[in-house]
Specification:
single chain, eight-stranded mixed beta sheet, alpha/beta, 35% helix, binds S-adenosylmethionine, globular
């Protein structure tokens, strides 16, 4: 296998990525890939060879340790079912250039939007779940970093004072007393230990005093998630809460553990982590090309430019306008988040899409609202839209559910047609175990140009199997 980093090697999309870091055991990315391909008997696999020829790597992205797969804002908040950002970057580099406009109609946690902006591409996302939209906006809007730092430090200091008072430390007569907060949410009362719940409710009560409310909500939501009365190894899909103080054998820590009772250490950890992730992404965006080609020379000016705007389909808010950074000759790439149903949500007038990069929900796999139940309970102003989810878990995986799913996804792509350039490329990532996508393409009037199959190494403690995920490349017929 050629070494993509050798100076004489031809540039591949992979060679343009930030190089993979060595693992803790000292293995290089290249060595990890070789071991993975040998172990999974994939070295001669036809799809793997095609991926290497097209992208410079097999697309497993095994080269990248966890911290690189969750770099900067990609780990601002946990989200089940997100892209590996390097996968998005490889496709954007291979098929698009800076100044292009890219849409993700199932934006999830915003991976495509973040990666597009990092490459100087304008990004739009449609996403049904209001909490996901809050997270995407918090990641992608421009921040006043000194103010953010001050606000995050201040909220942390206040929750710390509040907790110290509860432990009888210090004399802080102006603060409400722990125990003075109550919530009618049966979920929060059952899933969070009393001490942590008091801290969480106190923190929630002070958020309206600050400007960076979205990021403070992200910190709070992340803390609430970590403080749930669940085993430490089961944060993603816990079935029922433990009792406060209930001991259990922890698979993650290999010892007897108790669920979390005090949230302060999480407030501290996530406060610091949030600020540094936002700072890192802001620096990265400042270095992103503006109006210059990334992988190829430029041939088009940005279709739209501007700051972040969230438009709610139901509330008919306006279109984003060009907005340049002070002192910058060319504006940064824009980012627009539309909260709504991708079957019906219109894109802003004047947008012309060069491409789509997306991973739709699949049939009966993940309940996208329920995975953030704690956030919806904490922020009742965020209205759940479960009834409009495509492929909801509640409908299962039956043939009938599959047919409904095909019709729904085809509707989404048909809805996008007025905004697609004739040359637009649409990439859809799906573990299409029921073989639904070729027919979806036909139903949506799309031509299947090619399909890439990417080996996905399972990384859970109990499973090491490899499966293949498909990336369908569609264009207009
Ligand atoms: C597989 S996830 C996308 C994850 C994303 N690629 C990422 O990296 O974060 C699919 C997303 O589609 C959203 N979704 C489901 N039904 C939708 C609909 N009708 N309109 C818009 N979004 C929808 C879900 O809320 C979920 O966030």
């Amino acid at each position: 296998m050629p070494d993509e980093r050798h100076p004489s090697a031809p540039a591949t999309p992979f060679s343009l990525l930030e190089p993979p870091a060595a693992s803790q055991t000292g293995l290089t990315g290249e060595e990890r890939r070789r071991i993975f391909l040998n172990d999974a008997a994939l070295a001669d696999n036809v799809d793997v060879r095609k991926n290497i020829a097209t992208f410079g790597c097999d697309l497993s992205l095994i080269e990248f340790p966890e911290w690189q797969r969750t770099k900067h804002v990609h780990r601002l908040h946990p989200y089940l079912g997100k892209f590996v950002p390097q996968l998005v970057e490889l496709f954007l580099r291979r098929f698009f250039k800076s100044g292009d406009t890219i849409l993700d109609p199932f934006a999830g946690s915003g991976t495509t939007l973040v990666e597009a902006n990092a490459l100087g591409m304008n990004a739009l996302g449609i996403e049904l779940s209001p909490f996901n939209c809050l997270v995407i906006e918090a990641k992608t809007r421009r921040h006043d970093l000194p103010l953010l730092s001050r606000e995050v430090a201040d909220t942390f200091r206040r929750v710390e004072d509040f907790s110290r008072q509860g432990k009888g430390e210090g004399l802080l007569p102006l603060l409400p007393k722990p125990g003075s907060f109550t919530t009618e949410s049966a979920y929060l009362n059952a899933w969070i230990a009393p001490e942590a719940l008091q801290q969480i409710l106190f923190y929630r009560s002070i958020i309206p005093e600050y400007r960076n409310q979205d990021l403070l909500k992200v910190i709070l939501s992340r803390t609430a998630r970590s403080c749930r009365l669940v085993p430490h190894y089961d944060l993603a899909r816990p079935k029922k809460p433990l009792k406060p103080g209930e001991e259990y054998y922890c698979v993650k820590h290999r010892r007897t553990c108790e669920p979390i009772s005090d949230g302060l250490k999480y407030f501290r950890r996530y406060s610091r982590d949030t600020v540094s992730r936002i700072e890192e992404f802001d620096r990265l965006r400042d270095r992103a090309p503006r109006g210059l080609g990334v992988a190829q020379p430029p041939s088009a000016v940005p279709s739209i430019v501007g700051g972040v705007s969230t438009r709610r389909e139901d509330r008919g808010m306006g279109t984003s306008r060009p907005q340049s950074q002070p002192g910058a000759a060319v504006p940064h790439a824009s980012c627009t988040v539309l909260q709504g149903n991708a079957r019906t949500t219109p894109l802003p007038e004047g947008v012309l899409l060069d491409g789509v990069f997306t991973s739709p929900p699949y049939v009966g796999m993940i309940d996208y609202h329920e995975q953030h139940r704690y956030a919806y309970e904490l922020f009742p102003e965020l209205e759940r839209r479960d009834e409009s989810e495509i492929g909801p878990m509640s409908l299962g995986k039956s043939k009938k559910a599959q047919r409904a799913y095909q019709a729904d996804i085809a509707t989404v792509f048909r809805n996008l047609r007025p905004w697609l350039k004739p040359t637009a490329k649409l990439f859809v990532v799906a573990n299409d175990r029921h073989g639904l996508y070729p027919a979806i393409g036909e139903m949506a009037g799309l031509r299947l140009v090619d399909t890439f199959h990417r080996p996905v190494p399972m990384r859970t403690e109990r499973d090491t199997a490899t499966y293949f995920e498909s990336i369908f490349w569609f264009e207009l017929q």
